[in-house]
Here is the input.
Amino acid sequence: MADISIRDIVKTYPGQTERANDDVSLDVADGEFMVFLGPSGCGKTTLLRAVAGLDFPDSGSIAIGGRDVTYLPPRQRNLSMVFQSYAVFPHRRVRANIGFGLAMRKLPKAEIAERVERAADLLQLTKYLDRFPAQLSGGQRQRVAVARAIVMDADVLLMDEPLSNLDALLRLSFRTELKKIVQELGTTTVYVTHDQAEALSLGDRVAVMRNGRIVQLGDPIEVYDHPADTFVGGFLGSPPMNHLTGTVATGEDGPRLSIGDADIAVPAALDALGGGPVLLGVRAENITVATEHAPGTVRAEVDVVEPVGSAILLSVTVGGQALKVQAPPTFRVDPGSPVWLGFPPERLRFYDPETTMTLETA
Here is the structure.
């Protein structure tokens, strides 16, 4: 078993007043792919380094496979790590780079060769084994770094933004390869990234972090569709979730949200907020758009039209507030033209404007 139990971790760096990790607790199941996601400075790498033994927490505990490793050095934790930089030895051939950790353990040469060949085959590096890193592309060098980690057969695989140095197209293809490899290995994996696309596509679960704390933990679909607060909704998604400020008013056919001169039907549970302010959250792809009025739609004015290949991204104004709308690639409209928007009730999210936390509407 290689489950990870993180309990009440607190870490403050010397000279800093704010905690890098602020009472963080988390369980990672055996074989799970867990992603720490958040902006720079949110504490995700600090937490990973605590799991790795590269930094010790001020308080709290970390257990791997039921064994307390909180203050053990990395070599006693049976884990492997892939860093943001390739960190390959330029003077060693690929074969020696992959097998370096095994050689340090003084394993028999035949076993090292067998493990290296197996890892190279898994990462499509077999024909490059006798090359030097300078003869490889950036993606191939990152494959070498991953191969060097998985060849150790460690209980836990840690990855600190391993794809951030690759270009966009290579990052996309390598992401697919990486997910397939980790699934085949079944190794407990903790992955750190600031890239929400990586987090959503790779992780079994995603821990979204902010200011040293985990603000939401769940599977990718749950975190994307049901953000716990406006920060999560705004951080995940491209474009980010729209947030509009309105006032709940009670009408003959149920409560409605007034946004300037626009009215949007909202769930009956919000009737209790009659006359009170509320934040509406809705993603660009969940808004319907048409050039003609239909019952239940809201008039908007188009400010900017952005073709992005697979869709048309519209910047529009509703009730004096700006939002993004994603239209089909065949949709045609000019800036300054009116459009009519539909807001499917089941795709709307509502937040308290003071706490920015989600409101229960079920």
The first strand starts at residue 4 and ends at 11. The chain has nine helices and 20 strands. Residues 168-185 form the longest helix (18 residues).
